[in-house]
Each structure stands twice: as C-alpha cells, then as structure tokens.
Specification:
Blueprint lengths: L2 H11 L6 H9 L5 H9 L3 H16 L2 E5 L1 E4 L28 H9 L8 E4 L9 H14 L4 E4 L2 H11 L3 H11 L3 E2 L9 H7 L6 H13 L3 E8 L5 H18 L2 E8 L15 H14 L5 E2 L3 H12 L6 E4 L6 H4 L10 H10 L3 E4 L11 H7 L1
Parallel strand pairs: 1-9, 1-10, 2-3, 3-4, 5-6, 6-7, 7-8
Bound molecules: ligand V47.
Length: 381
C-alpha cells in the first residue's frame, strides 16, 4: 500500500484515540518512544496495531515471508539454574535428565542432513560438567561432518556460564566458540530485562545488562545473533516497552541483531503453572508492537511452535515476516505443555504462508534465498 493510501484510510481503523499521535509518527517514519511502547502494549485496539505494523512490514519486506529448513539440537537438559519459567532444565540426578555423548550429538544432527537442512539450532541447559572444550569439540565434529550447515548455537546465558566455568572472559569464550565453528547465535535467555520480574522467573540467570553486554560483545567479534522477549507471565506494559527500547539501543551501536522473536510463556510443568496460558490476541499484539518499536531490527519472527501454526500464519499480516522452520524435534516448549507438532514439512510451511497471501522464500540463517534443485525438493516435500 502506498503511503498516501495509508494516510487516507488509517484513521478510519483507529478506534483507540491514544494511538492517533503514534500513527502520525509511523507515517512519518519517526522513532517511537518508550512511552509510545507503553501506550501500544496497553491498547486493545488490535486491528489498529496490526494495521500500522503490517504497513511497516510491507514497506520493509513487501509480501515476502521467510522460512528455513532447520533442525533443533539440545545436547543436554541438565541445568544448574532452577528458573521458575522453565520446564526443560533438570537436575543431574533427575532420572529423566539426559546428556548426549559427542557421538550422539553428531548422529542426531545427521538425521535431517539428507533433507538438506541449512541450519542447526543448538541450545541446552547449564551443565555443571560439560566444559568449553567439550562444546568446541562438538562444534568441530559437526563442521567436519556437515560442512554446509550453519551452526546457530548457544544463548548469551550459556556463553556467560561457560566463561565463568573456564575462568575466562565472555569475549574469549565467544572467540573460542567462533573459532570452533559457531556461525551465529540464537536469541534465547533474554526473558524480560526488568530486575523485578527476573528475580521471580529466572533469578539464577545473568541479569539483563549482562545479557545485553554479551550480545554486544558477540556482535563486536563478528557474530550476528537473534534476540527474544518472554511475555505472558508477570510483566507489565512498562517492562515490555523497556525491554524493546534496550534491545534497540544496542542495535543502534552494533547492528548485530538479525531477528526478534517474541516468546509466549508456557506455564505447564513449571513453578509458575498457576499462571494462565497466552492468548492469540496477546500473541498478535506482541508481534505488532515489536514491529513498530524495533525500527532497526530487520526481521520479526512468529515462531509457529510457540504460537501455533494458525496464529503464526495470521501474524504474517500483523507485522511478522518470518515463521521459523521445519524444526524437526522441539523440547523446550513441549516440556512446558505445548501441543503443537514438533515438525512441519516444507510443504506445510509453504501452504500456511501462501494462504496468508504472502510469498514464501526459503532462506538460510543469514537470509540469503535458498534455491533447491528438483531432486532435493522432492526429498523435502
Ligand atoms: O531461552 C524457556 C524460553 C527460549 C519456557 O533465535 C520458555 O531463532 C516459554 O530462544 N515457556 C528458547 N518460553 C527458545 C528460543 C528460540 C526459539 C526459536 C527460535 C529462536 C531463534 C530462539 O524459550 C528460552 C526461554 O526464553 N523458554 N522455558 C517456557 N516454559
């Protein structure tokens, strides 16, 4: 839609009068403030939020929705932290805990290789015994066996823990991981930066400033990363807006964040199981507000595992331009009660995207389009 069309039609869809000045800023391409963010998060005028966010999304990406063919690998769920938000981490003595051997990691990775996986997404618990050297060996082994696959590995939280255990700086840890094969980093572990909330939901983790500093360092040494925000628990509109503004400030400095992924809290099997589950309404609002606030982060991902394929599909018209990938096997959300599938085929993703009136583009982790030969395509469908 051209900007003049937007100017003419937008006021008709804005019911919440508090959004009018924000609409003016969006039209003018002006940066939204922390206060604007609070207003957006407090508004229930979902169609107006979606209308504005969709306009920004189309200006940035046209009709394209990206997806990838990836595999998640979680080498261990043993974790020294006991975050109330998490159902995945287990104590070492828990009979249900698992830790893969190096050979098992390499074998699990290989299960999707024939299907031309372009990315391994590797995260796990804070294991008290697996050393930085062990992880470097794991990475080198993956690179040897699957040289064409991008390794998106370790959250800022895992890196900070490995650094502490190895008694070296976060920078040196990142450098060693990069030398061993890490190509970029996922966005997990950011939760919300508010100290008040972190004390309740993840008091064993690094704090918000440490997370941001680790991200800054990763970007400085040439590793791009994603970033996330966990919503739907004890946070306020102020906490959410503050989180986005702080990510945006780091991005102004480094330009290292590629994609932002709002993550809905799944309470089942966690210490916060009494909290209600997220709603489709809130999921779409988070997508829309993040697109409006994060004017310097290129991509907004509606992670279908977390929001269900149906909501992730609708999100493609509320500000999102990415839907994540085939995933294959997912543990973090499924341990917390997610009832979505663990795997979507390439053809399922294509259908979801096309039905939303978007043009599917398969990407690699760096958002280069992936072209497939007929033969490879046949394996994938
Ligand atoms: O770090 C943990 C969150 C994250 C729960 O970078 C929970 O492309 C909800 O970061 N309910 C892991 N959330 C997932 C993640 C991610 C996912 C997809 C793509 C990318 C990417 C990153 O999930 C954790 C934590 O923030 N989490 N437990 C829970 N019960």
């Amino acid at each position: 839609m051209s900007s003049s069309n937007f100017l003419q039609t937008a006021p008709a869809v804005i019911e919440d009068r508090r959004l009018r000045p924000i609409l003016g800023k969006v039209q003018a391409g002006e940066r939204l403030s922390y206060e604007d963010g609070v207003t957006l998060f407090r508004s229930s005028d979902l169609l107006a939020l979606g209308y504005m966010a969709n306009w920004v999304r189309e200006r940035m990406h046209g009709d394209v929705t990206y997806f990838n063919v990836n595999r998640h690998i979680n080498p261990t769920d043993v974790c020294v932290a006991s975050c109330r938000l998490c159902a995945f981490g287990k104590k070492a003595k828990d009979p249900h805990a698992y830790t893969m051997s190096l050979e098992q990691v390499w074998e699990v990775a290989g299960k999707g290789y024939a299907e031309a996986v372009t990315e391994f997404h590797i995260v796990g618990g804070l294991h008290p015994e697996l050393s930085l050297d062990w992880f470097c060996q794991m990475l080198r082994g993956l690179k040897e066996r699957y040289p064409g696959v991008h390794l998106k590995a370790f959250t800022m939280v895992e890196v900070a823990y490995l650094a502490r255990r190895a008694r070296i700086s976060v920078r040196e840890t990142l450098e060693r991981l990069k030398a061993a094969g890490v190509d970029s980093m996922p966005g997990g572990g950011a939760e919300v930066f508010s100290e008040r909330v972190r004390r309740i939901i993840c008091d064993h983790k690094i704090d918000g400033n440490e997370w941001l500093e680790a991200a800054r360092t990763a970007h400085q040494i040439g590793l791009k990363s994603n970033c996330t925000m966990l919503y739907g628990h004890l946070e306020t509109a102020e906490d959410l807006s503050d989180h986005l503004v702080r990510l945006r400030a780091v991005q102004d400095e480094t330009h290292g964040f590629v994609t932002f992924i709002p993550l809905a809290f799944h309470p089942e099997n966690t210490a916060l199981a009494h909290l209600p589950k997220t709603t489709g309404f809130n999921d779409l609002k988070q997508i829309a507000v993040s697109r409006l606030m994060l004017d310097n982060i290129p991509h907004i991902k509606a992670y279908w595992i977390m929001m269900t394929p149906s909501v992730a599909q609708v999100a493609q018209r509320f500000g999102a331009n990415d839907i994540d990938g085939t995933v294959v096997e997912e543990k973090i959300y499924h341990d917390a009660g997610a009832t979505t599938a663990q795997h979507l085929r390439r053809q399922d993703l294509l259908r979801l995207i096309r039905e939303a009136g978007r043009e599917p583009v398969e990407r690699d982790t760096t958002y280069r389009p992936v072209t497939r030969t007929e033969a490879a395509f046949t394996v994938l469908v």
